[in-house]
Amino acid sequence: MDLHTAKHELLEHFARVGKAVSSPQRLELLDLLAQDEKSVEVLARQSGLTVKNTSAHLKALRMAGLVATRREGTFVYYRLADAAVNDLIASLQLLARRRVAEVERLVRDYWEARDGLEPVLAGDLLSKLRDGDVTLLDVRPEDEFRAGHIPGAVSIPLDELERRLSELPVGKEVVAYCRGPYCVLAVRALEILNARGVRARRLEAGVPDWGRLGNAVARGGR
């Protein structure tokens, strides 16, 4: 094989990775797997796909080397194959937001407009946590919280938030977070909290982003 042929083959492998993430359904599955390893059945339920379609998308992601598996009894669990997969998705999101006007419009109209206040940046959150100024609220499912969360966060999954509002300290601002900057769970949490008169803002980062910035990630708890 000559050098030109080797380069062409190399580019084909790069293109295979790009093709694997060219589906919005696969991007959502990667977003879910960035939180914790999950079975096909859990991924199907959380993404709203059928088990058959979920399996097909996971096969494509595995063929591209983006996810890995382990077997436990009759169940197969999927996880991101490498932390660099997180970096790839974050870079893709950043580039699309900078260069695609429709992406910026959607973020402005459906995320930022619902916040009322500017999202909290990771660096600002550290200061607020040191000063004890806020209650940090993790609204992801409990298994994702146990797999990894921002230290000091309180776990109240979104579907339990309305009936557990009394668990939040009175008079403190709440900063809610979920899976990442475009996750809808924190946005919906803000709607619930603001409707009940609770001062609340959204953290712009999710746990994968938080860890990628070099911050500590806690595990376990509830």
Provide the CATH superfamily of the largest domain.
Answer: Rhodanese-like domain
Instruction: Compute the CA-based radius of gyration.
Output: 19 Å
CATH class of the largest domain: Alpha Beta
In the sheet with the most strands, the strands line up as 5-4-6-7
Looking at the structure, what is the overall shape?
globular
CATH fold type of the largest domain: Oxidized Rhodanese, domain 1
Q: Overall mean pLDDT score? A: 93
The number of domains = 2
Tell me how many strands there are: 7
Based on secondary structure, the structural category is alpha/beta
Low-confidence stretches: none
Sheet with most strands:
4 strands, parallel
In helices, the fraction of residues equals 40-55%
How many helix segments? 10
> What percent of residues are in strands?
5-15%
